[in-house]
Design brief:
The radius of gyration is 24 Å and the shape is elongated. The longest helix has 24 residues. The chain contains ten helices and eight strands. With 251 residues, the chain is of the alpha+beta class. A six-stranded antiparallel β-sheet has the order 3-8-4-5-6-7. Helix 1 packs across helix 3. The two termini are 40 Å apart. It has two domains: 109 residues, Winged helix-like DNA-binding domain superfamily/Winged helix DNA-binding domain (Arc Repressor Mutant, subunit A), CATH 1.10.10.10; 79 residues, Ferrous iron transport protein A (FeoA) (SH3 type barrels, Roll).
């Protein structure tokens, strides 16, 4: 469900919001928008743009006459600003906090902006306000991006001495961290992290193996591979190599 302006809540599809945002950016940057330019920007045919323009015009968001420049109405500009603001907040979060590459950050922001609630929008903005105002705000982000426990995106370790006092002092419970492959049937714990990167890590995340999720070892094949676990009421099978990357806190 999208969280849009009340009067537009049932009429603007995600695609129409994308068109409105594109028009807003073009008007801002060039002073005008045309169907062919919108088509090029959206990587679609001009024939697909015209019906969308008619629908936006019908809802009073743009002024559109065939073969003429497209202009935003006051309501259209207001709605476009709302959409674009969400895009900006999300893209900055992906870039500056999560350290995602620019293309992915832009595409994912464009996909998620349609569904961002006012409450979450407010909390993300407050997070940035905290980072900008707190003397340790940027240091906080740098620690996250360089943490040797989390690893960098290319798989190389990050810092080893950012935490003062050391992470062992701050988190004495970490001595209880083991991989799922080290446990015996009947033992259980909560996920702290999934080591590694790439397709294997993504597969495990997609299975729902996420931080703080409880995992119980149900049984292990006689040769030690695979390992069956219980997660959220379901039985899942992990290859031993996969189980070795799933770290959990026991006890």
């Amino acid at each position: 469900m999208s969280f849009r302006s009340t009067n537009l809540n049932k009429v603007l599809t995600d695609a129409l919001e994308d068109y409105l945002e594109t028009i807003y950016i073009m008007v801002r940057d060039k002073g005008f928008a045309r169907v062919k330019d919108i088509a090029n920007a959206r990587c679609v045919k001009s024939a697909s743009v015209s019906p969308a323009m008619r629908r936006l015009a019908k809802h009073g968001l743009i002024k559109y006459v065939r073969r003429e420049y497209i202009a935003l109405t006051p309501d259209g500009e207001k709605e476009a600003r709302r959409i674009y603001a969400r895009h900006q907040v999300l893209e900055r979060f992906f870039l500056d906090v999560l350290d995602v590459n620019p293309k992915t950050a832009r595409n994912d922001a464009c996909a998620i902006e349609h569904f961002l609630s006012p409450q979450v929008m407010d909390r993300i903005v407050r997070f940035f306000e905290f980072l900008d105002m707190c003397p340790e705000g940027q240091a906080f982000i740098t620690k996250f991006q360089n943490c040797s426990i989390l690893e960098k995106q290319d798989g190389t370790p990050g810092c080893h001495s950012e935490c003062t006092p050391s992470i062992e002092v701050l988190r004495p419970d970490l001595h209880r961290v083991k991989s799922v492959a080290d446990l015996n049937p009947g033992e259980a714990g909560r996920v702290t992290r999934v080591k590694g990167h790439g397709a294997v890590r993504q597969r495990l995340l997609d299975m729902g193996i996420l931080p703080d999720r409880r995992i119980e070892i149900e049984r292990i094949a006689p040769a030690g591979d695979p390992i069956w676990i219980k997660l959220g009421g379901f039985q899942l099978s992990l290859r031993r190599k996969e189980a070795e990357t799933v770290m959990i806190t026991t006890g």
